[in-house]
Amino acid sequence: MGETRLLDEAVRLGHASDALERLRELASTTTGLLVPVFAAHADALVRNDFAGLENVAARFEEAGFMLLAAEAVAASGSRGLYGRLVSFCEGARTPALVRITAAPLACREREIAVRTVDNHLSNAYAKLGITTRGDLALVLSDDNG
Predict the structure, then answer these.
(1) What is the DSSP letter of 141?
(2) Do the Cβ atoms of 86 and 97 come closer than 8 Å?
(3) What is the C-alpha separation between 43 and 40, in angstroms, rounded?
């Protein structure tokens, strides 16, 4: 089971295509319940199979692995199902969970955010008597060093 867990960690960290073939091999030779789900998870991620990811999430949930279920459904993009599953995960933050929680900004929101950052940078530059981000980095590193 050690190899299987390591392969599943690779899948969860974005390396599903690297782990898929070995997980398939292990799933075909094991009597365990989780190994086939790990293989199905990798397969669904590689194929961008959203229905498959929801199926994997249901299988993880049935087995009591709520974090794994939430991660699988996060990759499917199903926000409703994700909200229900992540509520069982007590504030967990993993790469898979972070991707779905970051809602994309609208064009106008992006413009405002960029202008706000530019305004704050301009104010800092004026106070420090500098003109570039490189200068800012040097000033800040001098303050910390």
Answers:
(1) H
(2) yes
(3) 5
| CB neighbours of residue 144 within 10 Å | 5
Query: Residue 57 is encoded by which pair of tokens?
Result: 């999430």
Name the token pair of 58.
Answer: 């249901």
- Alpha-carbon Rg for the chain, nearest whole angstrom, is 22
**Buried-exposed string 79-109: b where 16+ CB fall within 10 A, e elsewhere:** eebbeebbeebeeeeeebbeebeeeeeeeee
**Residues 78, 92, 23, 31, Cα dihedral to 10°:** -100
**H helices within 1-145, ranges in order?**
2-12, 16-29, 34-46, 50-62, 66-76, 79-86, 95-101, 107-128, 133-144
Residue entry with tokens 């969860």: 12
Structure tokens at 33: 């319940």
* Whole-angstrom distance, CA of residue 101 vs CA of residue 88: 15
98-113 confidence digits (pLDDT tens): 776 556 778 898 888 8
> Distance (Å, rounded) from C-alpha 128 to C-alpha 140?
10
**pLDDT tens across 50-81, in order?**
999 999 999 999 999 999 999 999 888 887 78
CB atoms within 10 A of CB 30: 14
